[in-house]
Amino acid sequence: MSADAVVTHFLFASALILAVGNGAGWLAQRLKQPYIVGQLTAGIALGPSLLGSASRDTYELLFPAEIGTALTGLAQFALVVFLFAVGYELDLKLLGDRARTAMTVALAAFVVPMAVGSGCALLFREQLRALDMPGLTVGMVLFAGVALSITAVPVLTAIVRENGLADTVPGVLAVSAAGLLDVIGWTVLAGTMLDSDSGSHALGWQWRALAAAAFAALMLLAARPVLRRLLWRTRMEPSLRLALLIGFACASASVTQFLGLHAICGALLAGIVCPREDNGTLDPDLLRPLHVVSSLLVPYFFVFSGQSVTLNSMTTTGWITLLVVTVLAVTTKVASGTVAARLGGLDRDDARTVGVLLSARGLTELIALNAGLQAGLVSKPLYTVLVFMALATTLLTQPLLLLVRRLATPEASRTEDVPAHRPRRKTRPQPADGASTTPVVDAG
């Protein structure tokens, strides 16, 4: 295929991805589901499992192998921008006077699914072989636990906002605990990937772990003051500052990618160390265009994810595994989050609400699954199972939340207000991809 033909195919594929992905997202919202549910479904539909099975010639015409590298590059760039924004919005100061409860809920909602997922990987290793999983390594066992432990902060905050829970105790507690879960989950995920390609990397995992720790320390200690001095105090034009910060995120992502930790770790770390305004609030001139760029490019990631979904190769074992994994994913999250919130002093109905909210996975789960697939920690058939588990748990969150409200005792307050001494919160506008921003403390 000539260079002109490659460009032509790439541009037409881009038009199709953007139209179908965002159209499906709009339809999902009309059906009272998160935007990304529609985008993920569109990505799978445009992949080899559905479009490829219906018409192989059409699929190969629309997505020839020659444009695969360009689509993959755009998908990875979309992840870098998205996770840079997630890291920038991550604010553990939201915990306030419920810090201990949020920490307890986060730990419970991570440890219990982690233990169940890792335990099942060890107990059912024979069944996993039927899904093309080789002999289990420590990294594979830990990754199985991480896959059940992930909570999607963007999807969770969108559900919280759309259900009027943004200024309630269960809503604030769930978002705060999910932020802590992000920190714990990405740290453990990075550790599982260190040993995944030891044989193919010039450095052993010990040296890479040491280099990663040194890089993280350098970023956490030095990057923020340097960035503030160079990009904020010079009163640089916002568009130029945005470009330089995205470049900074890409550079950080390239370092962690080289170390075998995947680019997502570096992008998230870059967002965490990015300076805020002097009063501690987020810079709207930075956050708004980040959401615009990420929402524009995220459909490429869903199509990239859909290329590895092999629905037509699902066997009876695969469907049974999907059912079991989905039940475990929902029950472990809901039960652990509910019990921990109850022990933290919440009433029964509010505690149930926190547990249900923490079961949302969505885009964050897909990012982790793609990282595991690229690192060789999960086979394609098992990856397919876990992708559909992520879709199912995201779809179930809203109905379960409505069920909790229906079961609530009449005298219970379902929208308990945040105590008056807590700073007033406001929610920024919802970006187009459905990745609602985390509530921030209003300095005023």
Classify the secondary structure makeup into a structural class: mainly alpha
Tell me the overall shape. globular
Percent of residues in helices: over 70%
| Tally of separate helices | 18
Question: Low-confidence segments, ≥5 residues, pLDDT <50?
Answer: 411-444
What is the CA–CA distance across the termini? 59 Å
State Rg.
21 Å
Strand runs, count: 2
Task: Report the average pLDDT across residues.
Answer: 80
Strand order of the largest sheet: 1-2
Give the SSE string. Answer: HHHHHHHHHHHHHHHHHHEE
Biggest beta sheet summary: 2 strands, antiparallel
* Beta fraction: under 5%
Secondary structure: elements and pairs:
Layout: H1 3-30, H2 35-45, H3 51-54, H4 56-62, H5 68-89, H6 99-123, H7 125-129, H8 138-149, H9 153-162, H10 169-194, H11 205-232, H12 238-258, H13 263-273, H14 284-306, H15 316-343, H16 348-357, H17 363-374, H18 380-407, E1 425-426, E2 440-441
Antiparallel strand pairs: 1-2
Describe the fold and architecture.
The protein is mostly helical and 444 residues long. Helix content is 70%, strand content 1%. It is built from 18 helices and two strands. It has helices at 3-30, 35-45, 51-54, 56-62, 68-89, 99-123, 125-129, 138-149, 153-162, 169-194, 205-232, 238-258, 263-273, 284-306, 316-343, 348-357, 363-374, 380-407, and strands at residues 425-426, 440-441. A two-stranded antiparallel ribbon has the order 1-2. Helix 12 crosses helix 14. It is globular and about 65 Å long. The chain starts with a helix and ends with a strand. Mean pLDDT is 80; it is low at 411-444.
